[in-house]
């Protein structure tokens, strides 16, 4: 990104009235609530993930009683016209076209990185060096080496009072947070099996253009890093252990695709003349082992025709089982294996009660949440970590662990699925 433009953005008063939700205090003209110090956020990237993160920052302080008040200070993108439109749409006060200018600003406390993976390390390292807190989208980096450097920088920054978090938002679904609590309480007993799939179909059409997500130099990997990173983190989070080793297969089904024309979001583009090579995987399947002895299987693909965003996970233990389906994200299925056989079976937990994670701040029981709320919860948790001076979860170290699993999967696939231990 080159060149810089700093354009103050003033919102219409009607927008402020419309955005005040659920009886929360009205913001002052500088975006802060009376008596609460601001947390001034600068975000790099404005496409799909940028829009999702914007929703989180815009809403968190209106729903939750936070110790700091998030202020959407600036948003950055290379296209001045497009980034200004994103600022207007998502409520950012100013724009930049050079991320370096954003990082150097004195009125930015936290840098939120929503760019392709090839720029994560450079932006995060610069932001930490500039004294900022950092939120970085997953996967943390494109290589283990980059991620290791980021972890070291984050540890040094933590000693200076800064925090760094990686954005695995599916931890913030109330149902998965409840599942984690139930596993930790021993409701399933010793775990035996973990099965996870993440299925999408947006690449089924061989004429879909060659966007950045299909280029290794930008994305790092394909479905493995895009979808697999999510389910690796989610499985480790729910189990409470890190994977020990993997045996993997990967495949690229369509190796040449039309080149895109104009701007792309990674998930959408328009074809132009000519073709280019797909340099990442289209699908990844692998088995794995946890140190406790539990066995796991993972599937990540963007070729599951008819599956738009189907993430499913099931855990089987000696005393019970849990199952979660992202397409029914307000529900958690639980089987209590200690019940009499005549009454046993999976039962549905409707995860909308005030006692469930995050839900005391939302709607009455039975009123469900959606995908976008995970980013609100992510912002909420990060704000609390900053205010309390503690390491947020998932940390950059957690992101590095996922990166090591991704590397082991690729290594195993290259070696005809040989079992590959996860590097420590």
From TrEMBL:
A Pfam family: GFO_IDH_MocA_C3
Q: Which stretches does the entry tag as region Disordered?
A: 1-38
Q: Which UniProt keywords apply?
A: Oxidoreductase
Q: What is the recorded name of this protein?
A: Putative Glucose--fructose oxidoreductase
UniProt entry tagged with the keyword Oxidoreductase: yes
Q: Which domain of life is it from?
A: Bacteria
Question: Which stretches make up the GFO/IDH/MocA-like oxidoreductase domain?
Answer: 178-322
Q: Which residues form a coiled coil?
A: none
What's a single GO MF annotation on this record? oxidoreductase activity
Note the InterPro entries from the entry: Gfo/Idh/MocA-like_OxRdtase_N (IPR000683), Gfo/Idh/MocA_oxidrdct_glycsds (IPR050463), GFO_IDH_MocA-like_dom (IPR055170), NAD(P)-bd_dom_sf (IPR036291)
- Look up keyword Membrane and say if it applies: no
Where is the Gfo/Idh/MocA-like oxidoreductase N-terminal domain positioned along the sequence?
39-163
Q: Tell me which species this is from.
A: Streptomyces afghaniensis 772
Phylogenetic classification of the source organism: Bacteria, Bacillati, Actinomycetota, Actinomycetes, Kitasatosporales
